[in-house]
Design brief:
The complex is a heterodimer of chains A (228) and B (275). Chain A is mostly helical and 228 residues long. Chain A is 83% helix and 0% strand. Chain A is built from 10 helices and no strands. In chain A, helix 3 packs across helix 6 (98-124). The radius of gyration of chain A is 21 Å and the shape is flat. Chain B is elongated, with a radius of gyration of 21 Å. The N and C termini of chain B lie far apart (63 Å). Classes of the chains: A mainly alpha (228), B alpha/beta (275).
Chain lengths: 228, 275
């Protein structure tokens, strides 16, 4: 064990956490909106809208995140990059950058899972609660925003906490499209020191700490918004 | 009972013998993704200059060999952790790597070069045909200055953990935006799509790609050798494996004398890259 290397690589890895957290937070925020939108579409009575939303979640939950990143980064990149017309368009400005490719892949992926989490949360809301609102003469819109959404969010907190942790670990795949996140920097250090065990132990420790923090924040929120 | 014992013993004995056979085999690690040095054919079989050379060297050593596939970025760690006994993967002999492993004498040499897509502003740089960085002369220093100016703010793509990455990180051509990839294939893809302004690798890796893909990839600037680019490509061996190192050095001597290395090199590179 090369403890000196572990100590020396720690600050470099800590710097890279910024990239990891940026990837995580941006994709979670975008993914939450996507998730909420598709959860609502899933509950729609129109069969086409319903099936469309189901197809999206099925597609992104049924394929590996790494494959999704590669299709967006190399697949679309190769297709657009070799097409003169598309290359001069706005799409290429975004897809040219590995950062945005990673964000798009992560957001679409977490969006699919989030839509399922929120959908099941909506469905657990007892009809009696909505009926209570209706009997008080509250409009459907307000019932939805003020009653259904808050309850659904509270219901989905434990599952969503897991999703945040899964996504945090998923961001390590950004290193496969040249981004220098925590895993990317760890690999870079290994490429010059040839000591993967030491460096990955430190990187793993940092991931573990982030999981610890996320887990406890979610637990705190669960307690704070507990029904009891 | 007796038969039972006999069976047990014969099974144990055969296991022991088989174990010995395996220990006697030299396991050689290669990447299989860096043509023409080493690559794979359509059926997934490892082919290339080093695969053929490995079989030749093993014949001279007089031992059986197996060739093991290993991702490039884990090559040296895998050798150290005894997943195989020798590296033949277009790995240049550099001082940095020699801190971790030993190298046999060089068996082939390659020059590195920048590549761009046809029509790039980086095409046709005013530099000599080739520069050696071991003791850079005035012309080489001037070429580095020209490159520093031309590459400022540009994105240059390389495979991770390579001499090419080391060179760009060394600051000899100023501050360029370095992007690292797991394989050379991925570098080629992003060069062709336009995500990279330029790429740096073995010159033959680009000409091989241009030929196979039909993409207008062209070399630009000088070819590089020496300095961060090392002193030829050799067999990587664990530091404590002095016997094997000696065996490989002898085998390379014999293969060179009999013309095997230049014959195989000419076959795969189209020119004699042996040394």
């Amino acid at each position: 064990m090369d403890f000196e290397l572990m100590i020396n690589s720690f600050p470099k890895l800590l710097n890279a956490v910024v990239v990891t957290l940026k990837l995580l937070s941006v994709s979670l925020i975008v993914g939450l909106f996507i998730g909420l939108l598709f959860a609502i579409l899933r509950l729609n009575k129109n069969i086409f809208i319903n099936k469309f939303a189901y197809g999206y979640s099925y597609l992104f939950r049924g394929t590996p995140l790494l494959v999704q990143i590669f299709i967006i980064y190399y697949g679309l990149g190769n297709f657009i990059g070799n097409n003169e017309y598309l290359k001069s368009s706005f799409i290429w400005v975004i897809l040219k950058e590995p950062y945005w490719c990673a964000i798009i892949a992560f957001a679409l992926n977490t969006g699919a899972y989030t839509s399922e989490i929120l959908r099941s949360a909506f469905q657990t809301i007892k009809p009696g609660i909505i009926e209570a609102g209706e009997s008080l003469g509250i409009s459907n819109k307000i019932i939805f925003y003020k009653i259904q959404i808050p309850i659904a969010i509270r219901q989905s907190l434990p599952a969503y906490g897991n999703e945040i942790i899964l996504m945090m670990k998923g961001t390590s795949l950004a290193s496969t499209v040249t981004l220098m996140d925590l895993t990317g920097v760890a690999k870079y250090i290994i490429s010059t020191t040839f000591k993967p065990i030491e460096v990955f132990i430190v990187a793993g420790g940092i991931y573990l700490f982030m999981t610890f923090v996320i887990h406890n924040v979610v637990k705190f929120l669960e307690k704070k918004y507990s029904f009891n | 009972m007796n038969i039972f014992k006999k069976t047990i013993f014969s099974v144990l004995f055969s296991l022991l013998v088989m174990g010995n056979v395996y220990a006697d085999k030299i396991r050689i690690g290669t990447e299989g993704a860096y043509p023409p040095w080493n690559s794979k054919d359509e059926s997934g079989k490892l082919i290339g200059f080093e695969v053929e050379l490995a079989w030749t060297l093993c014949r001279y050593i007089g031992k059986q060999c197996t060739i093991v596939e290993q991702d490039w970025d884990g090559m040296i760690p895998a050798l150290i952790m005894r997943k195989f006994d020798a590296i033949m993967a277009g790995m240049s002999i550099t001082a940095e790597r020699q801190k971790a492993i030993s190298f046999s004498q060089g068996y082939a040499d390659e020059v590195a070069s920048l590549a761009v897509m046809k029509g790039s502003s980086l095409e046709g740089l005013d530099t000599p045909a080739g520069i050696n960085l071991t003791k850079p002369d005035a012309a080489a220093k001037k070429a580095l200055k020209t490159l520093t100016a031309a590459l400022a703010g540009k994105t240059v793509c390389v495979q991770t953990a390579t001499i090419h990455q080391n060179f760009l990180d060394s600051g000899d051509v100023g501050k360029v935006n370095v992007r690292t990839y797991k394989t050379q294939d991925e570098v080629n893809l992003d060069l062709a799509s336009g995500r990279c302004d330029a790429a740096l690798a073995a010159a033959v890796a680009f000409s091989d790609y241009a030929e196979k893909s039909g993409k207008p990839v062209v070399l630009t600037g000088p070819t590089f050798s020496g300095g961060a680019f090392g002193n030829g490509v050799g067999v990587g061996i664990r530091k404590d494996d002095t016997e094997l190192l000696k065996a490989f050095n002898n085998a390379i001597d014999k293969a060179r004398k009999n013309g095997d290395i230049s014959r195989i090199a000419t076959k795969w590179f189209g020119f004699d890259a042996s040394m």
